Structure prediction request, 270 residues.
Amino acid sequence: MAAVKRILPRRHRRRFDRSTAKTLRAGSPAHYTAYVGPPDEYDLMGAMQFRLLATLGLRSSHTVLDFGCGSLRLGRLLIAYLEPGRYVGLEPNKWLVDEGIDQELGRSVLRVKQPRFFDNDDFDATKCGGPFDFVIAQSIFSHTGMDLMEKAISTSGRSLTPTGVMLFTTVPPDDQRPPFQGNGWRYPGLTPHAAPDVAALIARLGLAGREIPWYHLRQRWWIVSNDPAQIPDPRYDPHLLGGTLRVPKYAASVGDAPPPIEADDEFEHE
Ligand SMILES: C[S@@+](CC[C@H](N)C(=O)[O-])C[C@H]1O[C@@H](n2cnc3c(N)ncnc32)[C@H](O)[C@@H]1O
Prediction:
């Protein structure tokens, strides 16, 4: 999967300090905070995922696979929270993990929390150990065809504990962005998938699952499990909204009108 490895050589990276990096385009390989999404949301996107996991009962004794963990946007929070050896990150772009450790956590975390990392790029979660109480794949299937989504969900399903759940996001199609018909990996371009197609894939794989309303500025969240009892009943949806108060860009998450979109927000990503 050559496209996955298409990154800037190390000597061209880290030319930016933190505040300048926030002005880079989402998907830019020039900085670890930009490659994985809008750099000025690096903090919020990690917190959004951590809050969802915590709302769904994450305990420090759980084992979590962060599928496509990037530069540890979520991982830096999870590694601190989980007991040693309980965090597993899958990321073929190893420079992102290195930057996340060096810039966000410090190398001592490797000794203290013993996170484990895998760099296979074949979307096979069964190669990452397990079993996992949670697998989370945030903004991964927003860049894959149905072929890779199927492989990732199917291998993740086989890697879950009997009560484990997988969480993932997809980009809904709209007038400007029709459903993606191709296969493979596309980055930083988007691969919209219609909800009925995702639901049909989950059913075809013999898993239980549904879309949940947890707020995401650009995508939709899904939960799947081998055990239908692990899928929260819709009556709990009021606990699964994920709103963020007092951040203007996320005003829609609590039902307020968002501010006008700035030109810089128009990225072909996430
Ligand atoms: C939009 S980023 C999301 C990163 C992370 N999930 C987050 O929310 O911060 C997509 C990530 O998928 C990674 N990726 C690319 N190819 C992959 C593969 N074959 N398997 C797993 N992850 C892959 C990219 O390197 C990148 O870090």
